[in-house]
Structure formats: C-alpha cells, structure tokens
Amino acid sequence: MIRLSIPMRQALARLTLPVLIAAAFGLMLLGKADTLLAEHARTALADALAPIYAVMARPLDHAHQALDNARRVLTVFEDNARLRQENERLRHWQAVALALDAENATLKSNLNWIPDPQASYVTARVVADAGGVYARSVLLAAGPSHHITKGQIALDDRGLVGRVTEVGTRSVRVLLITDINSRVPVTLEGSRARAMLMGTNGPRPRLMHWPEGVQPAEGERVVTSAEADAFPPGLLVGTVHYNASNVPEVQPAARLDRLEVVRLFDYGLRGVLPPEATMLRPPERRR
Amino acid sequence: MSERGIDNAGRGIRRPGIRPRPSLWRRLDVSARIAFPAASTALLLLMMAAPLGLTGQAALQAAVGLACVFFWSLYRPASMPPMAVFLLGLLADLLSDAPVGVAVLTLLVLHGMAMRWRRVLARQGFLVVWLVFSGLALGAALLEWLLTAALTFRLLPPGPAIFLGVLAAGLYPVLAVPLIRAHQTLAEPDHA
Prior knowledge:
The structure holds 2 protein chains of 2 kinds. Helices cover about 35% and strands about 25% of the residues of chain A. Chain A has 3 helices and 12 strands; from the N terminus they run H-H-H-E-E-E-E-E-E-E-E-E-E-E-E. Chain A has helices at about 5-35, 35-75, 75-110, and strands at about 120-130, 135-140, 155, 160-165, 170-175, 185-190, 195-200, 205-210, 220-225, 235-240, 250, 260-265. Chain A is globular and about 90 Å long. The model of chain A is unreliable at about 280-285 (pLDDT under 50). By secondary structure, chain B is mainly α. The longest helix of chain B has 27 residues, at about 125-150. Chain B is globular and about 60 Å long. Chain B starts with about 25 loop residues before the first helix and ends in an 8-residue tail after the last helix. At the A-B interface, helix 1, helix 2 and strand 1 of A face helix 2, helix 3, helix 4, helix 5 and helix 6 of B.
C-alpha cells in the first residue's frame, strides 16, 4: 500500500467522483461505438442470471396461478354462463372452419399447390422482463446446447411476440413487437393492404404506412407479411383498434404482459441480418 | 436519524474505550457491515429483475436503485463510495436494455448531489430529506430520459420518466423504514 500524505489523499478522494463521471461518459461513447461489446457484456450477465431466474420462475408461476384461481372462484358463475354462450358460437365456427378446411384442401390438390415448408421450433421459458424503463424485451432461459439463432420468430399460443435479438449460451433475448425499435411488415387481412407496425413502448404498437385509398377497419385482423424476408406470411399479430386520438393501433393477440412460455420458430429467413454479419453495408440501427 | 459514530466525512469515529481484540471473525464482521449497503443494493437490483410479474417492475427497479444510492450516500457515504455507485449503475444498465452508461451517470450525479448537501441534509428531519429526494429523483428520471433519447436518436414518450420519478418519491418512505433500521444495526461497524 502506498502511503500518501493526508492532503494528497483528500485531493484524490475529491477527484474520484469527477473522474468516474467522465468514465460514465466514456462508457456511453464506447457502448455507442462498439455495440457488440455492450451486447456481449449484457449476454454474459444474462447467461449467469438466467438459470437462477429459471429456478425462481416455477414457484412464482405457481403463486401467480394460485392467485388467479382464487380470483376466478369469485366470478365462476358469470364465467360459466359466458363460456357456455361462447362455446355455442365457437361450435358454429368450428363447423364453418372444417368445411372451409376441406374445401381448401380440395382446391389445393386441384391446383398442385406447393405447401409451405414446416418450420421447426423450440419452446423456452420466459424468465425475466428485461427491457427496462425505455425498452420492451424478455429474457428466455435456454439449455446450454440450444440451436437458437438471431432473427428467429417468437410466438406464444395466441400470436406474434417478437424476434430474437441476442443469443447467449444459456439465455436468449427477444425484442417484443411493442418495443420502440420494433418494425414489423404486416398485411391487413380484410383489404390485403401492406402496412408497417411500429412499436411505441406502449401496450399497443401503431399501424403506419398503409397505402392510399385503404383505411384499416376497427377489429380487422393484422397478420405478418413476407416483405423484406424478415417474417413468414400469415402469422397473427393482432386486431386493429382506433385509440382516443383516432390513430389506428394494433391490439396484440399475444399476451405480452404475462408471457410464461414462448415458441421460437426457425423459418430460415435471412432477410434482416444481425449487424456483425453486415459490416460492409451500413449496419442496421440497433441498440 | 441518529448520527452515532459517524463524523462529518462519514468515517467511523474511534471512540476511546476498551475494545475486543480484532480477531479474524471480528474483522470479517466489520467488513461485512461496511459492505452491507452496496451489497444489499446490488441484491435488491437483481431481485427486482427477477420474474416477479409485478406491473411496472422495470420502473420499480430503477426507483429502488435511486432510493438506496441516495439513502446510503447521505447517511453512510463511507460504505457507498463513488466506485460502488459506478458498479451499481453498470449492473442496472446491463440488466436492462438501456444504453450502457445511462444509469451509471444518473446514479453518480445523484450520489454527488447527496454528498454535496449531506452536511445540511443529515441534520434535517425525515420530511425535508424526503422532499429533497423527491426533487432529485424527478431530476434523475428526466436526466435518464434525456440521455436515453440522445443515445438512441429517438424522441421517447416522457410518461415513463415522470412515472419513475413519482414512483421513486413514493417508494422512499416505504424503503426508508428497513433502511434506517439496517443503518442503525446491520451496517454499523461499531456493532461488530
């Protein structure tokens, strides 16, 4: 240990804070200049934490379910009546769907339709809400020998969740479609018009850039489009909903606020490559 | 808030008296007590990133970070040195998707403010300290919002920043109860 005189030591102690503040600015610049470095650090931390959080997630899920069940007991009669009605309606729709399915199969066989390739998928548990205050993403726990790659599509049981943006050895980060940096090419199912879905960090992403002469209708289904080769066509994203200021937004079909398990599909799409693969081109803006 | 055993620079005063021999266990005990504020804050940050399923958990995590760093910088600065604040900020940044360095700078500025005013503030009652923290938390949330917007080249909605500031101000009294208790017992090296 170096012995310093007391005034010297006091001066050094006073200097620590300004030096560290300068270091914080340096860190910001470094994080901006070398996005991969920040990503590696973040992935390393996530890899260390994901197994711990995965262990914690199970009992927490059980606790949440128990709470939900307790709440549902109170409304069991109303729920039952509502579900009976809904069941009647769904039975009708099931008949329609089966008829259409049969008709579709006949038409496809008559046309020698080439079927879409079946996508392989893996299922992973959501272990943490990893976005922070100004971003929307989730952390998944993955086994040490997973084959998940960047750009794979995350779906829950109802609809589109997002895309894989960071892959570690034990953890995977998925950018949700509600994140402010998320852009999803979509098709309005009714009018078959193309549009872009832009995240706002709010619960409902905004619909933009639809062609002139088409107006998104309230309640219209929105599915992904294969434009830009980033998503496969036809995945359900949500339904159009006009907000109070009459801007069309999309109510996501996936339950993004309470994701527990998601499926990661590998459609083999390489339309939007991660920045390290496109160093020669100006890199896609990412954080 | 008692000021027992801390001088103005935040160092423990060596009071006269008979002291037990500094055995290994005793020294370990003392160092654990000195490390308690920074370690407990880090643990709280990690816990707040766990899948608890709370609404607004990300804002809650940031608010806990602000409140803890402010409290310990004010009442036990020897145990919350700038280096510890820097590392806590880095942890908070890496746990979220925010650009690296934003929480680091915000927490360091908060720490610097608390250090600058601690001579006056530490003598005030709880209400004054709370009011000052509320102002500082709102400022810190706005600084974080500005930095994030500047670093991501995006105009972010200001709602979350205001929510974070208000949440931190509301959280402080709730958090202060266990922190004051810990300040007088667990984090007190003289109790070793």
